[in-house]
């Protein structure tokens, strides 16, 4: 059973930066794609970013238009970690951020991963003050 634990959230001012971490355990990461989603109060969970599996050897990534150029997803399979570097944060980035592991990496890389096709962490709160 894959387990994911997010950390690194917090309160930051507009224009600031945060790095979210996702610790993965219970499975080999090679064949898993990883995504980051977020959910703001009263809104649906939305996919923010995705990174391809190591086995695909593609280094492909996906970013939602709203975060493109500001967020960077990365993975370190040797450490069983996935990261989301967030720069130039805006108040509209305020949300609970979730890490997800999935075998449906093609859908993830198109920003179309269905929430039922992954294993999720518990989330970490990011609050950006104006």
What is the compact description of this entry?
By secondary structure, this protein is mainly β. Helices cover 4% and strands 47% of the residues.
Question: Could you walk me through the main structural features you see in this protein, from its secondary elements to its overall organization?
Answer:
It is built from 1 helix and 11 strands. A hairpin with a 6-residue loop joins strand 4 (33-39) and strand 5. The longest helix has 5 residues, at 105-109. The termini are far apart. Strands 2, 4, 5, 6, 9, 10 and 11 form a 7-stranded mixed sheet that branches. Strands 1-3-8-7 form a 4-stranded antiparallel sheet, with no helix packed on it. The model has no long low-confidence stretch (mean pLDDT 95). Helices cover 4% and strands 47% of the residues. The protein has one helix spanning 105-109; strands spanning 3-7, 10-13, 18-25, 33-39, 46-51, 61-63, 71-76, 81-86, 95-102, 119-120, 124-129. By secondary structure, it is mostly beta strands.
